[in-house]
Amino acid sequence: MPLAIPGVITAIIAIVFGIIILVKPAVLAYLIGIYLIIIGAIYFIQNYL
Questions:
Q1: Is the pTM of this model over 0.70?
Q2: Which candidate, 43, 19, 46, places its Cα nearest to that of 31?
Q3: pLDDT on residue 3
Q4: What is the number of helices (H) and of strands (E) in the chain?
Q5: What is the three-class DSSP state of 35?
Q6: Are 27 and 20 in contact (CB under 8 A)?
Q7: C-alpha to C-alpha distances, 1 to 17, 39, 48, nearest whole angstrom
Q8: 43 close to 2: Cβ distance less than 8 angstroms
Q9: 4-46: per-residue pLDDT in tens?
Q10: For 3-13, b where at least 16 C-beta lie within 10 A, e where not — what string?
């Protein structure tokens, strides 16, 4: 069963992350790292558990 995130929530997250990156560009690497870990964990849980 795939995890579906509604478009509104995705848009809000994208806007918030965009503002954070504009204000503090050094945070970009951390946000990308966290994103990749979360996406990887979700993929692993959906396909192997």
A1: no
A2: 19
A3: 59
A4: 2, 0
A5: helix
A6: yes
A7: 27, 15, 12
A8: no
A9: 667 788 788 888 888 988 998 888 888 888 888 988 888 888 8
A10: eeeeeeeeeee
- Tell me, what amino acid is at 11? A
Torsion angles phi and psi, residue 2, rounded to 5: -70, 150
**Unique residue bearing structure tokens 């945070």:** 27
Give me the residue label for tokens 């560009």: 25
The two structure tokens encoding residue 8: 């509104």
Element of type H or E holding 30: helix 28-48
> Which H helix or E strand runs over 4?
none
